[in-house]
Amino acid sequence: MSDPMSFHDRYTFPDDFIWGVATAAPQIEGAGEEDGKGPSVWDHYATQPGKIRNGDNLLVACDHYHRFEEDFKLMRELGVKHYRLSLAWPRIYPEGDGELNQKGIDFYHRLFDALEANGITPWVTIFHWDLPQSLEERFGGWRSRKTVEAFARYAQTVVKEFGPRVKHWFSLNEIIAFTRNSYGIGRNAPGLKLDTPTVNQTYHHALLCHGHAVRAVREFGQPGSVVGLVDNPWVPIPLSDSEADIEAARSCFIEDSVRVLDPLYTGAYGEVYRKAFGEDAVPEVEDGDFDLITTPADFLGLNIYWGYYVRAGQDGKAERLPMPPDFPQASVEWLKITPESLYWGPRHVRDIYGQDEIYIAENGCGYHQEPLVNGECLDLHRRDLVRSYLKELHRAMADGVNVKGYFLWSFMDNFEWGEGYSIRFGVVHTDYETLKRTPKLSARWYAEVLARNSLY
């Protein structure tokens, strides 16, 4: 019989491993019309009937704008020492460009003061989907290089202003979410369904903004500052560990990554890209664009919730396997419960693109029904899911993948985009009538993981 201690030690993480929680400004802050904040595309989208479930909006959200001190105190009580948050672009530049809103700057200084007082290190995302509505109306949003110019100024502003307080930066969060999903399939704000060449151009502009963010940190960040992109790649899981299945999964990963990771690491829209979309859909590229896009970053952030299975077909081509109807999933249909994705996502990035330093910037799950019973939310399903995913992450690290940290999504229940407040991703329960915060069972379990630095 194996020694019980060796079993526990098997799931111990490195002493310098970063454990944290994550949120995003538009999903928790509220104060949507206070202190000079301008509307974002999501604020505008929420005013259109039928776009957000139950007609929900972002005006109050979790009221973090007024309750951040309470929230950081709760984080400290749970042992959280690292917090991934985002800045609201329209709170700082209400029009996206134009005049700076000093009240927005002052708010984030107060927020960073409170984080410091609670011993929590900020990991700041510069852009998390909340494009100022004015840029969409005047220029077409991500369709225009005018937005790239506005972002470059915004990125320089926030790094100059907050650089003395912040050493860890994420440039953009999930490019697909505000390009393809916003301008191609109409799922996200502004909810458009445009042609492929236009969508591909929005991706190119987003990659340029990533480059501008990296350069801003290099030029204006304090010594030792680090920066990287956050991507949410579709993760192909080989059906077996055979070389043929692994190679099939790698080929699928490259095919799925041709709009973000492949150009980011190769500095071109290559053969796979052109085969996928055709020559007429390749973005317009100006001189120096790829020099900017490929400005060396320090790490890659990965948001990983799910994967799909792949095997080598009889014809030598990769076969993507459909999920059966009863495959386990969370309350959102897209979130298939596939713990191996947290092994293969980082490994693919390492093996294909040679990325050495990786952070899991988001991982978690959402459910519709999470009531408080006698003042407690027994979210055993979340605890079980996160634990099973973390085991696979540990396996990837044991196999030599350099994963430096993990941020659980999300600290609290919040506005979940098109689902509104109907689904809960938090380890802290939010009562949307009283705005009371109540740690769930999963929060108490995660606090033990942080304290022990292992899954115990």
CATH homologous superfamily annotation: Glycosidases
Class, according to the CATH hierarchy? Alpha Beta
Would you count the extended β strands for me?
13
Helix content: 40-55%
Q: From the coordinates shown, what is the CATH architecture? A: Alpha-Beta Barrel
Instruction: Describe the sheet with the most strands.
Output: 8 strands, parallel, barrel
Give the CATH topology: TIM Barrel
Mean pLDDT, as a whole number? 97
For the terminal residues, how far apart are their CA atoms?
19 Å
Overall number of structural domains: 1
Strand order of the largest sheet: 1-2-3-4-5-7-10-11
Large-scale geometry: globular
Counting H and I runs of at least 4 residues, what is the number of helices?
18
The rounded Rg comes to: 21 Å
Task: Give a written overview of the molecule.
The protein has 18 helices and 13 strands. Strand 8 (307-312) and strand 9 (318-321) form a beta hairpin. It has one domain: TIM Barrel. By secondary structure, the chain is an alpha/beta fold. An 8-stranded parallel β-barrel has the order 1-2-3-4-5-7-10-11.
